[in-house]
Design a protein that fits this description.
alpha/beta; Rossmann fold; 2 domains; seven-stranded parallel sheet; two-stranded parallel sheet; transmembrane helix; alcohol-forming long-chain fatty acyl-CoA reductase activity; FAR_NAD-bd; lipid metabolism
C-alpha cells in the first residue's frame, strides 16, 4: 500500500470539515441532540466550539440545563477520558418559539460572525400537540433559524433534521423535494392571528388527511428549507422512528419512553395485553447512534460532493423486521432474561387483526383489571395509578395504529452513494449499516438500559424481579387453567347435563 493510499484510508473528513470551526445546534438537550453533541466531541477533536441554543425550562436557566445535560450517563465516557473537551460546549440563551429566536443583539451578532455549521433539531415530537404549538415550534422556528443562517457570514452548511414520515401520502418516498400539504407561510400567519380554541376546532380540516400535527408541520418545515436551496447550502436528513443506542457509547441507552420503548416497558410490566396491528407488517426503526452518524456523514458528503442535498436515512431497505418478531423477542427478554420490577401480570397478549376483537380485549384485559387493582390500591391508602396508565396507553394506541397498519417504503440512493465513498476510518468511526446486529442482544440492552436510566431499577433488583416473574407465571397458568375448567363446567352445566 502506498503512503497516499494509507493516508486516504485513515482520513476522518468529518473532523477535517469541523476543524477550527463552530457548530450551532438547536435541540441539543433532546434525545438525538445529546447523542450528536457527545459524538462530535468524541470523534472530532479539531472542532473549535459548539454553541447550544437553550431556553429556560422548568425553572432552570440554560447554564443549569447544560450542567444537567453533562450529568447524563451518555457523557460518562467523555468525562472519564476527555473532560477538557466538554469545555468546547457553550450555551446561548435562545428559544425557537420567540421572535428572532429570543437572541440578544450581542449573541445574535456573535453567532452571525462565528457559526460555520448549523444542525437544526429543535422540534416538538409529540404527535398530539395542538396545531398552534406545533406550527410555531416546528415551522416558524425553522423559518427563524433559516433567517439567522442567511445572515451568517461564514456558513458552510445548514443541516435540517426532518423525518421519513412527513409525506405520508407517498407510499414510496424518494430523496427529493415534495410539495407541502399547505403554504407554510400562510399557516404561520393563520396560527399567529387566530385564537387557539378556534384553531383546534378546524384542525382536522387544515390537516386534510394527515393523521397528526407532527407529520403535517414537519412537512411544512421541510418545504421552507427546500425554498432556501438557492440561497443557502442546506441538507435535509429524513430519519425514521429513532430508537435507543445500538453500539456506543452505551448500548441500549435512551432518555425517554416514547414509541417502541414505551410499548416494551408497558408489555414488560404486564399492563399491555393487546394491540390492533398487522403482525406481518414492518416498521422502519433506526438506532439513534446510527442516525447521528448519518447526520455527520451526510453533512460531510453534501459539502464534498455538492450535488446531494436530501437523504433518506432509513433501515427497512436492508432489514425488514415484522411487528410479530419484535413483540416475540421483547416478551422473551422481559419474561426470562431481565424482567422489570413491579410486574402486575405475566407478559403476554397478542396482536389482533380485528378492531372489534382488540377493543373487547382492551375492556377485558386492560380496563377491568386496572379498575380492580386501582380500587385495591385506593383502599390500601395509596394513590391509584393503573387507570391513568391505561388512559396513556390508549392515547398512544391512537397514534401507533395508523403507522402500524400502513406501510411505506423508502429509496436510499443518495445515502448509499455517500456510504460507498467513505474511508476505512470513517466506516469505523461512523457506522451507518446494520451489519452484525443481533436483535435479541439489542433488545436486551434496551431493556437493561431502560431499567437503569428510565425506571431507576438497579441491577441488584434483577434477582428479586425474576422471583416475582416466576410467581406471575404461576398465577397466569393457574388463571388459564381456571378459565378452561370454568368453560368446561359451563358447557357441562348448560349443554351436557340437560341431555343426560
Amino acid at each position: 500500500m502506498t503512503g497516499n493510499g494509507k493516508l486516504l484510508k485513515d482520513r476522518n473528513r468529518v473532523d477535517e470539515m469541523f476543524a477550527d470551526r463552530t457548530l450551532l445546534i438547536t435541540g441539543g438537550t433532546g434525545f438525538m441532540g445529546k447523542v450528536l453533541v457527545e459524538k462530535v466531541l468524541r470523534t472530532c477533536p479539531s472542532i473549535k466550539r459548539i454553541y447550544l441554543l437553550i431556553r429556560n425550562k422548568k425553572g432552570k436557566n440554560p447554564q443549569e440545563r447544560l450542567k444537567e445535560l453533562f450529568n447524563s450517563a451518555i457523557f460518562d465516557l467523555l468525562k472519564n477520558t476527555e473532560v477538557e473537551t466538554l469545555k468546547k460546549v457553550a450555551v446561548i440563551y435562545g428559544d425557537v418559539l420567540e421572535e428572532n429566536l429570543g437572541l440578544s443583539k450581542e449573541d445574535r451578532e456573535m453567532l452571525i460572525n462565528e457559526t460555520n455549521v448549523v444542525y437544526h433539531l429543535a422540534a416538538t415530537i409529540r404527535f398530539d400537540d395542538p396545531l398552534k404549538k406545533a406550527v410555531l415550534l416546528n415551522v416558524r422556528g425553522t423559518k427563524y433559524m433559516l433567517d439567522l443562517a442567511k445572515e451568517c457570514k461564514n456558513l458552510i452548511v445548514f443541516n435540517h433534521v426532518s423525518t421519513a414520515y412527513c409525506h405520508l401520502k407517498e407510499k414510496v418516498l424518494y430523496e427529493r423535494a415534495y410539495p407541502p400539504p399547505a403554504d407554510p407561510h400562510m399557516i404561520i400567519k393563520l396560527v399567529e392571528w387566530m385564537d387557539e380554541r378556534v384553531i383546534d376546532s378546524i384542525t382536522d380540516r387544515i390537516l386534510d388527511g394527515y393523521p397528526n400535527t407532527y407529520a403535517f408541520t414537519k412537512a411544512l418545515a421541510e418545504a421552507l428549507v427546500v425554498d432556501e436551496m438557492d440561497n443557502l447550502h442546506v441538507t435535509i436528513l429524513r430519519p425514521p422512528v429513532v430508537v435507543p443506542i445500538w453500539k456506543e457509547p452505551i448500548p441500549g441507552w435512551t432518555d425517554n419512553i416514547n414509541g417502541p420503548m414505551g410499548l416494551l416497558i408497558a408489555a414488560g410490566k404486564g399492563v399491555l395485553r393487546t394491540m390492533y396491528c398487522d403482525s406481518q407488517g414492518y416498521a422502519d426503526f433506526l438506532p439513534v447512534d446510527i442516525a447521528v452518524n448519518a447526520m455527520l456523514l451526510t453533512c460531510m458528503d453534501s459539502v464534498v460532493q455538492k450535488k446531494r442535498r436530501i437523504y433518506n436515512c432509513t433501515s427497512s431497505f436492508e432489514y425488514k423486521v415484522s411487528w410479530q418478531e419484535i413483540i416475540e423477542i421483547g416478551k422473551g427478554i422481559v419474561a426470562n432474561r431481565i424482567p422489570l420490577n413491579g410486574v402486575v401480570w405475566y407478559p403476554g397478549g397478542s396482536m389482533k387483526s380485528s378492531r372489534l376483537h382488540h377493543y373487547l380485549c382492551v375492556i377485558l384485559f386492560h380496563y377491568i383489571p386496572a379498575i380492580i387493582l386501582d380500587s385495591i390500591i385506593f383502599l390500601s391508602g395509596n394513590k391509584p395509578v393503573l387507570w391513568r396508565g391505561q388512559q396513556r396507553i390508549t392515547k398512544g394506541f391512537d397514534i401507533f395504529e395508523y403507522y402500524a397498519n400502513n406501510q411505506w417504503d423508502f429509496n436510499n440512493d443518495c445515502a448509499l452513494q455517500a456510504r460507498d465513498l467513505l474511508t476505512e476510518r470513517e466506516l469505523e468511526l461512523y457506522k451507518v449499516d446494520g451489519q452484525g446486529m443481533d436483535l435479541d442482544e439489542y433488545f436486551y440492552h434496551c431493556t437493561h438500559a431502560a431499567r437503569l436510566y428510565i425506571l431507576k431499577e438497579g441491577d441488584e433488583t434483577i434477582a428479586g424481579a425474576k422471583r416475582h416473574m416466576m410467581i406471575m407465571w404461576c398465577v397466569d397458568k393457574l388463571c388459564k387453567c381456571l378459565l378452561v375448567l370454568g368453560f368446561f363446567y359451563l358447557m357441562y352445566q348448560y349443554f351436557l347435563k340437560p341431555l343426560m
